């Protein structure tokens, strides 16, 4: 089963919590058990699983990534978004989460985030549910 989540980001660097979107997909599809593969088909974004209770955690991660790969740098890529490509490569475009009894198997405080590094933009996130 394949699904697409459509997002519109508002800032250049932004974290969008998408766990509720994925839970809705699982509920409406009546998917019970298997794997949920979450993938961003964009080279300047990423998918991350981390704490969603305190937004300062995601802010700290974005702050660290911006220190590691600042917007202005001695980059060769001419579009002016090399930092976004580097951040995307460091975090990665996908995550896989176990689904059991129709629920994502995540820790108490874990959320699933779409990380935008070159917004604002219209984006998609692909979700593939694999029974097993």
From TrEMBL:
<dbReference type="Pfam" id="PF01894">
    <property type="entry name" value="YjbQ"/>
</dbReference>
<protein>
    <recommendedName>
        <fullName>Secondary thiamine-phosphate synthase enzyme</fullName>
    </recommendedName>
</protein>
<comment type="similarity">
    <text>Belongs to the UPF0047 family.</text>
</comment>
<dbReference type="InterPro" id="IPR035917">
    <property type="entry name" value="YjbQ-like_sf"/>
</dbReference>
<dbReference type="InterPro" id="IPR001602">
    <property type="entry name" value="UPF0047_YjbQ-like"/>
</dbReference>
